[in-house]
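Title: Prediction job returns without error message
Component: structure pipeline
Severity: low
Priority: P3
Assignee: unassigned

Description:
Job completed but the reporter wants confirmation the result is attached to the right record. Sequence as submitted:
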Amino acid sequence: MPLFARVIVLLCLGAAPFVLYRYYERWQTRRALVQQHGCEDVPRYAHNDRVGGSDLVRLRQEAMKQGRLMLLYEEQFATYGKTFEENFLGRTVINTMHSENIQQVATSLFDDFARNPGNRIVGWPFMGKGVTTTDGVDWKYSRNIVKPIFARSELSDIKGLSVFVDRLVEQIPKNGTTFNIQILLHKLFLDISTNFLFGKSMDSLLPNTTFDSDQFLKAFDEALAGVGKRRQAGNLSSIRYAFDKDWKRAYKTIHAYVDERVEAALEATSPALSENKQLIQEDDSLPKKYVLLHELAKQIRDPIELRYHIIAVFLPARDTTSILVGNALFFLARNPHIWMELRKTALTVDPETLTFESLKSLTEFRNVLWETMRLQGPSGRVVRYARRDVVLPRGGGKDGQSPILVKEGMSVDSNVWCMQHDRDIWGPDVHVFKPERFVGKRLSWEFLPFYGGPRICPANQQVMTHASYALVRLTRHFECIENRDPVMEYIELRKMTAQSRNGVQIAFREPQ
């Protein structure tokens, strides 16, 4: 045997006792955890492919194509219990809809879990390092920058929204013509979000706008869809989408738009220019327009880092609210009697005097939005990766009520959608649009429209304010809403978030 080979063999033999000891040590630690907490086994999905779990991957990909991924999860929870284990391309995943488990992962065990590193890698070219893609020190840094900004902006003047909603109303057919309002809503909240984020709106709802908003929105959707497809493909994404040039072209379009505004913001907030402005400023009492990008630029001077921070806010700012309002109209069109009740309330308020606080007091509108998010929330699942061995309180044993051991390296898939369709919590009519179910209901961890814990969406109050205002204005202006979609059920179109695959095909009628 060559000398080199002998050395390798001797090193392996020397290391073997150490490796075996470490395995034994870990086994002992886990055994102690199991005994201490009374952990029991989790039900396992009955795979045909027990090695890689490819059978379940194919099943879910087909469900995504059919727009029924969440319904498939609901069926699997009904079969295996509210917590079950699966093999996802060689990695163990714990699926759970137990609210106690979801709460633990989001709060007390927050530091024991991280975002799935694979998901972070596949979305990195587009999304980079921001508050929605990082963990640990990087996440805390991003969060500490963004959260105070949104806390101040929530109290901004509601009147700033009126000009954009006026444009939306002007674009809506008034004579009962069928149209897809989801397209207009994407433009509405693109205009609102770009005005808030960059200080200048795209004005995509203006008929004579010079900016090609349709092309931008197409690139936006393709970039988001590309991230979603890669996350679903897991470890195979780099192979399956190795030659996908369309995704790169799409996210480069978004980068180009953002980079131009980042450059302007860095120049506008340069220390030298700020000093000059302070010297010539005459009246501090004049209202100052709040621009989120300028606030970020005062703290982040690197253009690439600033680009990714603003994109992390830009993505949910456009999608979350537009899809929420679109989904609400989807359900209201199928329940026109609820529209009539909202209209009665809307006609009692003066839109010119609406404030952040007065919108919060309109409980009928709040309940409609909450029920919309219960049925079809911004994010159906939240996946976290265990950094170390932890114990979750539910899911083990025949009744699913015993604690379970989650080993380091496993993933926990918190299925918020299925929890919010749990018949034990919400009753047998979980698939019925019923806003009154929230009347007098004390909300807890069974309802997480914006997730919870430290990673709760920092703009959640702004989303609710903007969505409520849009619905108040629409119900005041239009007497009735009609569904014009022959398909009554909600068919999912999943990107990073979910929206109606058929759009929101409706018609409005003005008072005679």
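Comment from assignee: result matches the submitted record. The first strand starts at residue 83 and ends at 88.
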